[in-house]
Amino acid sequence: MAKANKIVSKNNKQLSNESFEFLKNYINTASPVGFEASGQKLWLQYITRFVDTTMVDPYGTAVGIINPDAPFKVVIEAHADEISWFVNHITDQGLIYVKRNGGVDALIAPSLRVIIHGKKGPVKAVFGWPAIHTRVSNADKDPAPKPENLFLDCGARNKKEVEQLGIHIGSVITYADGFDELAYDYYVGRAFDNRIGGFMIAEVARRLSENKKTLPFGLYIVNAVQEEVGLRGAEMIARRIKPNIAIITDVTHDTTTPMINKLIEGEVNCGKGPVVVYGPAVHNKLLTVVQAVAEKKQIPLQLRVVSRSTGTDTDSFAYANDGCPSVLISIPLRYMHTTVEVLHKSDIENTIRLMYETLLTLTPKTNLSYF
Length: 371
Hints:
The chain is of the alpha+beta class. The protein contains nine helices and 17 strands.
């Protein structure tokens, strides 16, 4: 089969070969909620060269630290976990029923390939679904995929054969789809939410190291676990570090795709730059600092509003301890919580630049007082 032509824009700054290989490997490495170890090991191996020391908390949040003895502490943070499924029930016929692990979408599951992470290693399986010929012909009564009627077929034809493969109740299940490239400088893959954030904060650390930048504070590069089930990893690590400032990066919706109401969600577009958010958890003066950096460095910026919580780890850091001035910098993403999440290369570069340049602007004396 002929290889598809890849059309790229002329002005897009490319990642280094090493960074690009790390990005691909990191996106393709399973890191399901509560079982993030494989992804965290890979991330730590990459970042270790660019920091003074590293640490991992009891639940798996990984941290690279620059200037660990400095009293003033700044965090840049992403979350490492991806949505997934659990093995919930194994039938006598060898079929496997599932339960959600995070906000995984039942509607996309039928006919997708998965990996079951059992005691004897990974096992390939598929989400089965009855053929259209055998389902109710009346479209109004056609069954919709739901967690209670989704099942996996791994090739076993009885319960014993399933168990012989090392599959057990509680085995975690991830989709098998991996990283790829589309035309016009787009990447596609599963779990860009939010391993793209983990990649970007690692790149900030790399650039600080390679450019021999000295920071007047301790920098904690945090790759947190369990965001997808309630921001739990961020909650724990914020208490442990007790930072003075936190810069959180996550994904946000590209709202220009069909079936999204811009009057509700606002207008955000892939390829038009990182997104900063207005909302209660976002510190107004810190947000102003970020916006000033973007203007000075000519980094394109998009705006979004949240009415209560951000729904990201920003909330955990902002309200931790005695309160921590926090800001959210998001990257636009299409088709969130599917296996074909899509984002634009230029947004990756510009989000990295915005975090990097913001860090070079901050000092312990940066005025973040309320008035």
